[in-house]
Amino acid sequence: MKRLTVSEAQTQHKSLESHWGLRSDRIVARFEFENFERAIDFMHQAVPFVERLNHHPDWCNRYNEITITLWTHDVGGLTELDFALAKELSALYNTFK
Is 1 part of any domain? Predict the structure, then answer.
């Protein structure tokens, strides 16, 4: 898998929903839910997407919030896979609104 250049990452970032921020070699989103149970439900429902892509996010749960950081550890930066998973997670998150 090829690491994206800064320019390529910036272009890919423009295709994401606004809750995704570009931070150096990572993309980060914070999703807010009605309560803790809904936040955990989101994580459970995300598992099939994560496993299908075989790309595991760094995520943190704090009560009704989940912060997700994506980057490809193997290449030390962003790849197409990070943006593909971000789009899947955004689509899932939109079903929770």
Answer: no
